[in-house]
Structure formats: structure tokens, C-alpha cells
Write a structure and sequence with these properties.
Number of domains: 1
Distance between the termini: 48 Å
Helix content: 25-40%
CATH superfamily: Aldolase class I
Structural class: alpha/beta
Order of helices and strands: HEEEEHEHEHEHHEHEHHEHEHHHEE
Shape: globular
CATH topology: TIM Barrel
Oligomer: single chain
Largest sheet: 8 strands, parallel, barrel
CATH architecture: Alpha-Beta Barrel
């Protein structure tokens, strides 16, 4: 068992495994969504009553990390590190393989500390062809993790890229001693320079800012996941995890964060052509269409897929299929037959004016 710098190994694993199980229970039983909206409601797509296209000709396929995927869709990180997570991740992965979309696993820290937990993340056997993303918290680069641990996470699941996630607000609410985010840009840059696969950096649901995005781009990060506010709130999950004594009287941060739509537009302006994943409160195909029109290259979804994943691969596949059909309906009624056409930003408006997406 690995001992993280500054933290006793016994404390890390026993409490964290239980927390992972509780996260799933809380997400399936409680209202864990932010009180802040995503901001997508402030935009609308322009209806084209003469689309001049055949619905059957709409093509939403694209490439992700050099692999062709059948839609610009990513199953965002959810879970891992306990027995029940294995079934969830396999259901997600089997659906991703059948549909041809990308998938990220949950944080692999527990499996790096205890290799008996690795199989809860390992899905290559059922998803040999999909782009698969490994996942670690960036802050642990300040607590003894480095290139070796990042490579180990990638090798554990035969990943195509590594996601390093940023979660200062979540850590502040969790308490404890993992609160040192100083100097992370330099350490992320080192990982970007030396890791065997590309590095993606994401927030966890409070939104990437333009300033942070520029620092990450300059560090060599190959893709950003803005993960804006309006979806799952790790403040609420953490409050619920601590019990009702940390509940409603500590709810002032429930609306913390940059709404997804605002984060997307501002980060796109800041980082130019750097690929962006839009996630955070994406709940249907219309949200996906708006995100793409506002400048996203790909769109991620997590919570709406958790409930199907607790059931079966078939239910996950049905949910994703429904979202993709909704995306095609939106494109059809805009007169757009390809994802690249939707990304031109010419079919979306805000408050009656053209949305400026640069």
C-alpha cells in the first residue's frame, strides 16, 4: 500500500472507500444538483423551417484523440474504488463500446494506494476500441504523486489520455489536509511534457476560469473540460456525506461556480483553438447542441447516466441514444447536417442577438 506524503495510508483507504460508496448512494437518493443554472436557457438555436437537408444524412461523428467516435460525446468520470463501482463502470463501458463514444473512469487514487481495487476501473476487456481516459486529482501532485503514479494510472486501464481534475472548493468543504494547490501549474507542465499520453485537465463542476485555462494551455495541456456550475454539486454531496448537521445551515455555497455556458464562451475566447469538453449540467440533446454551437468540441455527461448504469448496459445505451437523437433533431431544425457546421456558431442567439463566439 502506497503512503501519500503527509497522510497516513490507513486513514486514506478505509475512509475513502466508504466515501466512494456513499457518493453513489447520495447521488441516487438526494438532490445533488447545484442551485445555479447552467446558463444554457439564456441561449436559443435559430429555427430554420426550410432546412434543405435529409434527417437521415445528419452525421455527428468526429475524432477524439485520433480515434473515430460516432458522436462528440464523453461519459464523464463518475466512480471507482469499491465493489459496486465495477458493475457501474462495466455497464458504462459496454454502452460506450456499442455506441462508439468516449469514456472516463472515476479518480484512480484508491487503486494506486491499494492495487486490489484496480479491477473496479478496468474496462478494456469489454470496451477495446473506445477512447478511454484515466483520472487523478491534480492536487496530489503536491502530496507525493508524480510521473510514475500518472503512468501507473494510465497503464492500469490502458488509457488513451490522463485527466487531471481540479477541485479546490470540494477539498475546502471536505476539510482535512489536502488543501495545498500552490505550484500546480509547474507540476502539471512537467507531467504534460513527459507523460506517454496526452493530458486533459477538468474542473469537477464549478467551472474553469479563462485565467486558469490560459495557464493550463501554456503548461501544455492538450484539452480542457470546463465542467461548469449547474449540474452535480460536490458541495452538496460533501454536506450530505457529513450528515444533516452540516446540511442546510451550510448551504451558502450551493450556487458557487461559473455557469457552464458562461465558462464555455469565456474559455473558448481565452484559449483559441485548444479542444474543449463542455460538461456540467448537460441533461439532454438540446444542451449538447447549444454547447457545440457555443464553441465546445465535445460534450460530457455524468449524473444522468448514473441511474441507468446502476441498472444495465442496455439502459445506459438507451439514455445516450436518446440524447443523440435529440441532438440530431436540433441540428435538423437548424438546417445543419454536421457537427462542424454546428460549431460555426452561426445558429445560436442570446437575448435576441447573435452570440459572439470567438
Amino acid at each position: 500500500m502506497r503512503k501519500m506524503e503527509g497522510l497516513p495510508a490507513s486513514q486514506i483507504t478505509k475512509s475513502s472507500i466508504k466515501d466512494k460508496e456513499e457518493h453513489i448512494r447520495i447521488c441516487s437518493e438526494r438532490d445533488v444538483e447545484s442551485t445555479r443554472s447552467t446558463g444554457f436557457e439564456n441561449f436559443y438555436l435559430v429555427n430554420n423551417p426550410l432546412p434543405e437537408i435529409n434527417f437521415e444524412d445528419i452525421d455527428i461523428s468526429c475524432e477524439f484523440l485520433g480515434k473515430k467516435i460516432l458522436a462528440p460525446f464523453i461519459i464523464s468520470p463518475m466512480t471507482g474504488g469499491f465493489e459496486g463501482a465495477k458493475r457501474i463502470n462495466r455497464n458504462l463501458a459496454m454502452a460506450a463500446q456499442e455506441l462508439g463514444v468516449a469514456m472516463a473512469v472515476g479518480s484512480q487514487r484508491l487503486a494506486l494506494e491499494d492495487d486490489t481495487l484496480a479491477d473496479s476501473y478496468q474496462v478494456r476487456e469489454v470496451a477495446p476500441d473506445i477512447p478511454l481516459l484515466a483520472n487523478l486529482g491534480a492536487v496530489y501532485l503536491n502530496y507525493g504523486y508524480g510521473l510514475d503514479e500518472c503512468e501507473e494510472a494510465v497503464a492500469m486501464i490502458d488509457a488513451d489520455a490522463l485527466v487531471l481534475y481540479l477541485n479546490p472548493m470540494q477539498k475546502a468543504f471536505q476539510g482535512g489536509r489536502v488543501l495545498n494547490f500552490r505550484g500546480l501549474q509547474q507540476k502539471i507542465a512537467y507531467i504534460c511534457q513527459h507523460l506517454s499520453v496526452p493530458v486533459i485537465v477538468k474542473e469537477v463542476g464549478f467551472g474553469l476560469s479563462p485565467g486558469a485555462s490560459v495557464l493550463l494551455r501554456d503548461a501544455g495541456v492538450k484539452m480542457l473540460d470546463i465542467a461548469g456550475a449547474g449540474g452535480t454539486s460536490w458541495v452538496k454531496i460533501t454536506r450530505f456525506l457529513k450528515g444533516e448537521s452540516s446540511g442546510e445551515e451550510h448551504n451558502y455555497f450551493d450556487d458557487w461556480g461559473i455557469p457552464t455556458a458562461e465558462a464555455l464562451v469565456s474559455v473558448r475566447r481565452a484559449v483559441g483553438d485548444l479542444p474543449i469538453i463542455a460538461s456540467g449540467g448537460v441533461r439532454n440533446g438540446l444542451d449538447v447542441a447549444k454547447a457545440l454551437a457555443l464553441g465546445a468540441d465535445y460534450v460530457g455527461m455524468a449524473l444522468p447516466l448514473l441511474f441507468p448504469a446502476l441498472s444495465s448496459e442496455k439502459e445506459v445505451k438507451k439514455k445516450i441514444n436518446d440524447v443523440m437523437v435529440e441532438l440530431k433533431k436540433a441540428m435538423f431544425c437548424c438546417g445543419i447536417s454536421s457537427v462542424s457546421g454546428l460549431r460555426k456558431g452561426e445558429v445560436i442567439r442570446v437575448r435576441g442577438k447573435r452570440a459572439v463566439v470567438e
